[in-house]
Design brief:
Blueprint (H helix, E strand, L loop, with lengths): L2 H15 L9 H14 L4 E6 L2 E6 L2 E6 L9 H11 L3
Antiparallel strand pairs: 1-2, 2-3
Length: about 90
């Protein structure tokens, strides 16, 4: 695991966790917000296939994510661990 990537994930998480409306959102909306911010500057295209499923197109590849497998966004450590294992490519 690249330490810089971990720091980046934590910074994004901390930024989003401070959104005033974040606690009123569903866990799926919190996760989608995080993934959108994370992939925003990477030239990725995010397609929401349905409420629980995303596809991320990046550098010629496609990553499919079942959001049912993602830990609760409010459990920071578990969520960041999941991100390091599933979002970094």
């Amino acid at each position: 695991m690249n330490a810089i990537k971990l720091i980046e994930l934590e910074q994004i998480y901390n930024f989003i966790a401070e959104y005033p409306e974040i606690l009123s959102k569903t866990n799926f909306d919190r996760i989608r917000t995080f993934i959108s911010v994370y992939h925003n500057d990477r030239g990725s295209e995010i397609n929401i296939c349905d409420e629980n499923f995303l596809q991320i197109k990046y550098h010629g590849g496609i990553m499919s994510l079942d959001l049912n497998s993602v830990p609760n966004f409010l459990h920071k450590s578990d969520f960041i661990t999941w991100c390091t294992n599933n979002l970094i490519h």
